[in-house]
Request: fold
Amino acid sequence: MTQSKLLVGIDIGGTKTAVVLSHQPPEVLARAEFATLPAKGPQQSLNQIKKSVRELLAEKEWEPGAVMRIGVSCGGPLDRVQGIIQSPPNLPTWENIPLKSILEDEFKVECLVENDANAGAVAEHRFGAGQGCQSMVFLTMGTGLGAGIITDGRLYRGANDLAGEIGHVRLTRSGPIGHNKAGSAEGWASGGGMAQLAAQSVAEAQRKGKKSLLADHIRTGKPITAREVGAAARKGDVVAIEILRSTGERLGEVLAILTDVLNPERIVVGGLAMRLGDFLLEPARRVMQREALPQTASVCQVVPAALGESIGDVAALAVAMGI
Reply:
């Protein structure tokens, strides 16, 4: 790309927002990150996004006119065509925010907005673990659980852009809540679901006199995060290891559904699977092999996302490239 074809990628999450510049994705030339703080409402983040774009351009001595396109990756629900953010679970105060028009008015260039699971799927397909696949599923396994689907080498969105909402599928009649549904795939197989399971498991372990590195959370009332469960498991905490095994097995049930319905060559799992590896993926693969049809399971690889912690940056740039 020439300087006049600079791309801006904006990855908006419930915890952090990142702004990146690139001439040639996945290479990142400049980057800024700040806390999203959704509880304070959208305006402070919108102001920070605008400020970050201008500061990064100034840092590289580029004028705003050098930008060819802006791409935004954000959790849904959202109106992709109009570029309106519609109160995602991780951004509850972002109610009908016309992000596309806000950024186009500010920078006078086209802005494209895409669901983060779809953006992540395209990023991993073009630059990561999905390279060479004609059929692939990318799972966002963070606070929530969603999927982006690549079929015949192209992103599949569905009739109204809602393809891939695997987190909403109910696995059990009761259980952890995700996607506003008890027993959903997101409730059982996500960071948010793991936190719910951890609170119950650690409390039960204490009642039985079992020791755990996570026990202080019960005493203080502090929520247990998926990150803390992973850290405890790496130190050999038996309760934490069991939480990850249980979550991995539920993930395997989700993988079996995706494998039988979509018959992909590869399922790429981001987020927690990148950070926790076989703590989650070994039980997940085992259950998938047991539950899925042998014919579909035998041709499907389950692998962690290859882009690592940079996947959000690359996903936003993939949107800016024009999915």
Q: What stands out?
A: DSSP finds twelve helices and 15 strands in the chain. The first helix runs from residue 43 to 59. The two ends are 17 Å apart (CA to CA). The chain has a mean pLDDT of 94.
